[in-house]
Write a structure and sequence with these properties.
Elements lengths: L2 E5 L2 E4 L4 E8 L7 E7 L6 E7 L4 E3 L7 E6 L4 E6 L8 E8 L13 E2 L3 E6 L1
Parallel strand pairs: 2-11
Antiparallel strand pairs: 1-3, 3-8, 4-5, 4-9, 5-6, 7-8, 9-10, 9-11
């Protein structure tokens, strides 16, 4: 079965950068969408960026121009390059996958999730 393991979170100053990684294992289907999401305690999970198996991407308005989603199929790894980080980007970040070829940001569509990695941005 598919498993997702995030890494790369940490604590940075505003304006700095981080790269999150999500290692994907057990993937047996070739048509899918991978997404990055974030969630604060007591709040709904928010879609940040998504990329499908055709390399179509979508981004939340709040991160457009600052974050870049990509994947390396040879390494079975999903990435989220985060630049110009702001304190409001502080959150737990999760990766997820769904067997659909569409870059969906709605977390309700996703059925397999990683355990999350914390990103903290201080001003």
């Amino acid at each position: 079965q598919v498993q997702l393991v995030e890494s790369g979170g940490g604590s940075v100053q505003a304006g700095e950068s981080l790269r999150l990684s999500c290692e994907v294992s057990g993937l047996t289907y070739s048509s899918y969408c991978l997404g990055w999401f974030r969630q604060d305690p007591g709040k709904e999970r928010e879609g940040v960026a998504a990329i499908d198996s055709d390399n179509e991407t979508s981004y939340a308005d709040s991160v457009k121009g600052r974050f870049t989603i990509s994947k390396d199929n040879s390494k079975n790894t999903l990435y989220l390059e985060m630049n110009s980080l702001k304190p409001e980007d502080t959150s737990m970040y999760y990766c997820a996958i769904v067997p659909m070829v569409l870059p969906i940001l709605n977390p309700d569509y996703y059925n397999i999730w990683g355990q999350g990695t914390q990103v903290t941005v201080s001003s």
